[in-house]
Sequence to fold (928 residues):
Amino acid sequence: MDENILEMRSITKTFPGVKALSDVSLAVRRGDVHAICGENGAGKSTLMKVLSGVYPAGSYDGEIVFDGQVCRFSGIRDSEHAGIAIIHQELALVPFLSIAENIFLGNERRGRAGLIDWNKANAEAAELLASVGLAENPLTPVGQLGVGKQQLVEIAKALSKDVKLLILDEPTAALNDTDSAHLLSLLRRLQQRGITSIMISHKLNEITAIADHTTVIRDGQTVETLDMSQPGVDQDRIIRGMVGRDLESYYPERESHPGEEVLRVEDWTVKHPSQDRLVVDHASFTVRAGEVVGIAGLMGAGRTELAMSIFGRSYGRDISGRIFMHGREVKARTVSEAIDRGIAYATEDRKKYGLNLIEDIRRNVSAAALGKLSRRGWVNGNEETRVAEDSRRDMNIKAPSVSSIVGKLSGGNQQKVVLSKWLFTDPEVLILDEPTRGIDVGAKYEIYTIINKLVAAGKAVVVISSELPELLGICDRIYTLSAGRITGELPVREATQESLMVLMTKEKELAA
Amino acid sequence: MTRTVGPEANQTPPEVADAPAVALHSGTSDLRGLFSRNLRQSGIYVAFLAIVVLFAILTSGTSLSPGNITNIVLQYSYVLVLAIGMVIVIIAGHIDLSVGSVVALTGAVSAVLVIRHGAPWWVGVLAAIAVGLAVGAWHGFWVAYVGIPAFIVTLAGMLLFRGLTLQVLDNVSLSPFPSEYGKVASGFLNGLIGGNGYDAFTLLIGVIAVAGYAVSGFRTRVARIRYKQPVESFPLFVARVVAVGLVVMAFAWQLAHARGLPIVLIILGVLVIAYGTITKRSVFGRQVYAIGGNLSAATLSGVKVRVVNFWIFVNMGFLSAVAGIIYSSRSNGAQPGAGNSFELDAIAAAFIGGAAVTGGVGTVVGAMVGGLLVAVMSNGMQLMGVDQSIQSVVKGLVLLLAVAFDVYNKRRGGNR
Fold:
């Protein structure tokens, strides 16, 4: 038998306009727990999708050797058949079906006459549950279980298919500490049974605790594979690998003259809308006029949740904490109240939450401030067109006219429409959530320029971003967020990618 | 080191792919562009015209005779009234299955008060409207504030209000209404200023309508020019006014040579103009489109989604009551089974008129043309003596084709 259960050789995967993976190689030893880490968008998930056949053979270049055989998976069924199971961040269980039904979904235990033998299925399910350490009745509907237990059901499901290689994508991102610890010890037990695991994770303390090897991916390329048993390989070593690149993008220059404090948030605490855990945990921060403040955090750190809950309580429940504008406490219980108080929030998902894609530029630009264009409830359509024309010119929105349908514009131009919409509400604080996600370098530069103009005009801007170079390039001050808590605040001249990454991965128990 | 400055940082921002040159302020926009941009809307007009011509030929002109045109107006007015409310409901992404039952209930309440208790006709009218508003508020409450899908709420309403109708009427029909009440649907304004063999008043109203159209069109045009926006060339504008004027006057001419101006046509005209303006120009109308186009984006733009949804259903209740009054007046009484399947006619009118199943798209005028298309078609087939069963088949196919056309258009649009 080979020493390596899996070898991915020179994998290159291109999407229209983007090279997601470039000559990536990965070797995983039989019986290892192998961690993969890298920044958001580095290509980790893409690599796993190539491996599991989500992107079928032929849609990428390179070679996959699994268990001594060259594999060309044409779909997820092929890879499952070969013994590879992937457990995604968003769990793929049917909440209304029982644990046993979920475990054998698509892989039903047939008895005589092709009917499902439920006695056999439930008995087998009970065994599988015991092997993952979950003490639940197999007949319990999955929807009644917490996320941690659902994750275990997913693993049981994978075990039912005689899995040889288990891939877990951010398995502990949504788990509390106890559940995380339980999951990690389960991976150890599976390892003793000869099952190899690949774990994608941002949580470096978990990686150092459990992984035998760690592969670092950056910008779609393998940087290195670290042997975790070697001396000197610790969290700092991994962080150096994750961020150690030159800044190839560029940012327009700006002189910074922060003025008075505009927004102050104190002790902001938000509960998950359906689960019993805090998504934002006593977060406090301030923003001053003419200042760009960054919020850095890994996926699942609660960045968007923090912003949306401040913006008229659009996210979460049991929200507590106080918001001050210019030193006076304000209430922003609904979105329209938040807009009236001078807060604007440009979403990270502009297609889903930001734009009416079937309408034109004009109607999208006016959508959040129709009151300014109307008298006694009647909209002045000509004034509306004039406003949209002004935005099109000022923001350099590339479209034939303001009657162009927004859904047909490019990502960068759509983002400019979103910004136009919020600027037209005349806000004092703009919260921009991933303002440059999915747009090209040229458009990014334009967005940065717009941000600079805004702060020059005395606005306060908060930028949430996954790209640390971006934050370092445009912000005056950066807060780091980890597991819903503000773990640090650095002026940009003192911040480096390494120091931010240390704070972003700081866990609760270390934070004290 | 505060800023990382790349080599290009001092240059101008990366130059933009040259935007297509735009003839925006040229003062004219060509007819073909106008036509293809509004293909979905103009498609329905063309289809309507084709149906009118087709049945005029098939019935050797009978379908366009003065008496028949009056008939179409009287016979389908209540469906058109319902379609106005329904298209707004559909634009917001909902549906209302209960309107047929609400038509029956409002008519029944009015009939009980006026016929059984001898109340004056206007008491019946006001009571019907009050009931309609209450029903609308009931639906609005469940849809907007409790969050139950409108399909379920109004399906329940369809059963609920049909049952209440039976209760109110004690399961028997009531008739007849006093003659004043009957005027609402079958009354005419004629002879007010005389005319020999025709009604001069009807023609006068026609002239006023055309003049109003021309003046408002001209004012819009002037305002757009002031804001430096594209407008059609002046000859084209005149041609449009003349064309509309000819159609309206021909219509008025035919009415004037039958029984004059039907009162329900006045009611309908007022409603169409009012709701056409509300949907197009009011903040409320904009919010309806915003909710239907992208609910999440509308919510995050500060639209008070619940309030808007609530009033959409209150309005539907109001228009159902108006339709209930017209229908009870026309049938000169209230029947337990009144208004059966009206909801389907109204929904069909909205979809044939270009409303999108997914919400966010549709116009009041489109729904009117969609409703009239079905009306002209049904009426024409009746004149030809086509069997009821075939009529139903044809109507079903027209609805299917209209929505298929919509879906096809959207797919093509998406691939562009």
